[in-house]
């Protein structure tokens, strides 16, 4: 583990988790993990909000993108220019949803390292001097949920949350395109495949990870899905207001 990564990401997250563990009633690790997830989500809120808005904008113009792909199927240069013009007209950057997600990766890796290595042994030596360092951390939550070992139920919950989140991002297929074709676009087909592939992959990965990490994965995906609902409704409301002003 590099020193910079340890100091900037790993150690602060480890110390935050230990501090939360110390203050929650009964020193319940599960409750501490939920609170940690909420705090990290709040810190990354501006980034995740921007990513969701960008994904929503791309979702809204997907039917137009499909039309351009069909119209210029044999004219790659013309299609490229038309796509750039479409993005410009709708003020959409197709890459703007990727950067916020990339920025979040170090946080996700740090959380993974904390749950995998940081709750026992010499790792607790990295707890700051002003935080009470427990001799050990009880990984049993609510008296029955063992978070230090893989938990298939938490993995399934994480997969279901992943499915719900992905389903909201599926572009609605127009009934009939201007060319009269009812065939699904390649993008729509790939979206449907990802809709089922990612949740299944989440479950398979989750059953190999400590239950604490699966719990974190479930809560953060659930919060992201709820945030998507809010951002989508907010954007639709603004669009309706703009359309109403245009009609007037």
**Structural class, from helix and strand content?**
mainly alpha
Series of H and E elements: HHHHHEEHHH
Distance between the termini: 61 Å
Task: Enumerate the strands of the largest sheet in spatial order, edge to edge or round the barrel.
Answer: 1-2
Key attributes of the depicted protein:
248 residues; 2% strand; mainly alpha; 2 strands; 8 helices; elongated; two-stranded antiparallel sheet
Q: What this model shows, in words?
A:
With 248 residues, the protein is mostly helical. The protein contains eight helices and two strands; from the N terminus they run αααααββααα. The protein has helices spanning 3-23, 29-43, 45-71, 76-89, 98-117, 152-168, 186-206, 211-247, and strands at residues 140-141, 145-146. Strands 1-2 form a two-stranded antiparallel sheet. A hairpin with a 3-residue loop joins β1 (140-141) and β2. The protein is elongated and about 65 Å long. Mean pLDDT is 80; it is low at 171-184.
């Amino acid at each position: 583990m590099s020193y910079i990564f340890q100091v900037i990401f790993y150690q602060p997250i480890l110390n935050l988790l230990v501090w939360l563990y110390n203050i929650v009633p009964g020193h319940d690790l599960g409750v501490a993990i939920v609170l940690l997830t909420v705090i990290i989500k709040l810190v990354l809120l501006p980034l995740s909000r921007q990513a969701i808005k960008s994904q929503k904008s791309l979702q809204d113009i997907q039917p137009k993108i499909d039309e351009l792909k069909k119209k210029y199927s044999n004219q790659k240069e013309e299609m490229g220019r038309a796509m750039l013009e479409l993005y410009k007209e709708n003020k959409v950057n197709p890459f703007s949803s990727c950067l916020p997600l990339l920025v979040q990766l170090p946080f996700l890796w740090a959380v993974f390292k904390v749950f995998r290595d940081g709750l026992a042994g010499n790792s607790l030596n990295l707890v700051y001097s002003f935080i009470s360092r427990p001799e050990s951390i009880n990984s049993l939550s609510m008296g029955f949920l063992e978070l230090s070992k893989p938990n298939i139920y938490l993995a399934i919950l994480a997969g279901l949350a992943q499915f719900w989140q992905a389903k909201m991002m599926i572009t609605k297929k127009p009934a009939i395109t201007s060319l009269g074709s009812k065939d699904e676009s390649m993008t729509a087909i790939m979206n449907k495949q990802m809709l089922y592939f990612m949740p299944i992959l989440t479950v398979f990965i989750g059953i190999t990870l400590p239950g604490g990490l699966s719990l974190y994965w479930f809560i953060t995906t659930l919060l992201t899905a709820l945030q998507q609902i809010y951002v989508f409704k907010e954007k639709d409301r603004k669009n309706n207001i703009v359309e109403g002003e245009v009609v007037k």
